[in-house]
Amino acid sequence: MPRAMKIVIGVLIIAVLIGLVSFRSLHRRMQRLAESQAADEKARHEVLAPPISTPTDVTVNAKIFWAAGADKIAPVQVQLPLSADPVQRSWQLLHELTVNPPTPGQRTLPADTVLLGFYVLPDGTAIADFSEALSSEMPSGILSEEMAVNSIARTLESNVAVLRRLKILIHGQEVDTLAGNLDLTGFFDLNPPVATAAAAAANSPH
Amino acid sequence: MTTGTDTRLLAADHRDISDILCAVRKSLLVVSLSLTAAVFASVPHATAGQTSPAPLPAAAPEPAQQPPAQPGPVIVLDPAHGGTDTGARGETEVEKDVVLQIARSVRAGLERRGYRVVLTRNDDSNPSYDDRAAVANAYRDVIFVSLHVASTGADGTVRTYYTQFSAPVLSAPVATAAEARNPNPAPPRLLPWDQAQRPFVDASHRLADLIQGELAQAFSGSPPASAAVPVRALRSVTSPAVAIEISSVSTPTPGLLTASAGPLAEAIALATAALRPASAQGLR
After folding, report:
1. Residues of A in contact with B194 (CB under 8 A)
2. pTM here?
3. What pLDDT score does A94 carry?
4. Which of A98, A132, A136, B14 is most buried as measured by Cβ atoms within 10 A of its Cβ?
C-alpha cells in the first residue's frame, strides 16, 4: 500500500474518532437543552405574566379543564388561591390553565400563550385577549382548536359564576378563526340559562 | 444647449408620444376586456365551484361533467384549506393535499351511487369561506360537507361536526329553514350572511348524527354521535352543512387517510338517503 494512502486512511480514522467523541457530547448537550425547556417556559411566563395575588384571595378547590386523552378534556381539582373579584379570579384561573398542566400531554393551549387582558362587561360578557401565540402556535384542526377553546370556557364557567358568555380576541383584535377552523367571530356561551335553571330546579325543595 | 423654443417643442413631442401610448393602452384594455367577457360567457353557471384540473402529480383525472337534471340533492364537497394555507402539517403530508385527494375519491364514490357532486376547489387554490359557501348556496337542494384532516386525535378515528351559534343578538327575527327555501316567500325577513346557517342547524345536526352513526361503525374508536362546534366553513351555508375530520395528518401510514374515502362516501350517501328519503328513491 502506498505511503500516501496510509496517511489518508489514518487521517480518516482520526476524523471518525473525533466525530464520535464530539457526537456523544453534542447528544448530551441536546438532552440537557430538552430538559431545561420546560423550566425556561415557566421562567418566561414568570416574567411575561406573573401569578396574581389579591387581598381577597381564598384557597379553594378549583376545577381546571385540561386534556384527558387524545380527544377530550376533563376537570382536574387544583388547590388555588382565588380572588373574589371576577376579573382577577379569571386571570388567576387562565394563568393556571396555561402555565401548570399536570403533564405536558395534558396541555390544551400553546406553552407561550399569555393572557394580555381580561374584562367583564355588566351583562356578564367576558372578553379574554390572548397573545398571538395562542393562534400561531396552535396545531391546526377542528379537534385541537375546539379542545383549546373548550378548556378556557369550561374552566371559567366552573369557577366564575357571574360570566354568561366569552369573547376571545388575539392581540386585541377580533380574528376570523383560531387556527384556520374554529370561528372566533362569535361568543361562547358560559353558564347557559337553561342549564342554570335546570340545576336550580333540581336543587330546589318540591 | 437648448433654447426656450426647443424646450417647448420637446415638451409638445412628449405630449404627442404620451397621447399615442395612452390610445394604444386603451385599445389593448378594450381587447383584453372583450376576451375576458367572452371566456366568462362560455363558462356554465353550474360549474362555478369546479376550477381547473389539479397540478398535483397524484391527481385523478377530471371526470366528465354530470348531467344537470339528476334527481336528489347536490352534494357539495369542500376540501378545506389550500394554497398558502396548508392546514394541519405532518412529517410528510399536509392537510390541504390529503383532503383534496379524499374529496376526489369521495366524489367518485358518490357519483357511482347516482349523486351529483360539486367540489368547492379542485386544485391548490384557497377560496374564501364565503366563496365556498356561495358554491353551495347557488343550488336549491344541497348537502354541504367540509372535509378536514386533524393534526391531533387518535389515528384512524373520524368525527362529524355541525355548527353552533351563541344566543341570538339580533333584534329582527331570523327566517326559518322552511321560509328560507320557500320559492314564493311572503315578506322577506332578515337572514344575515354570517348567520345564514342558523335556520338549518337542526337539519345539519340530524345529518351530522346520521353520518357519524355510519362512521362510528367503519372507524373504531370514533365517537357515536356528532358534536356542535362553531366551524367557520359552515356559518354561511344555507343548507344542511357538516364538517368531517379524520385523525391525523401525523399518522405513520398516510395511505390510511386516503383509504378512508370509500367509507366516507358510503356514510355520506346513506345519511343523505336517510335525511332525504324521497329524493333518494329518485336516484334508484
Report:
1. 185
2. 0.74
3. 96
4. A98
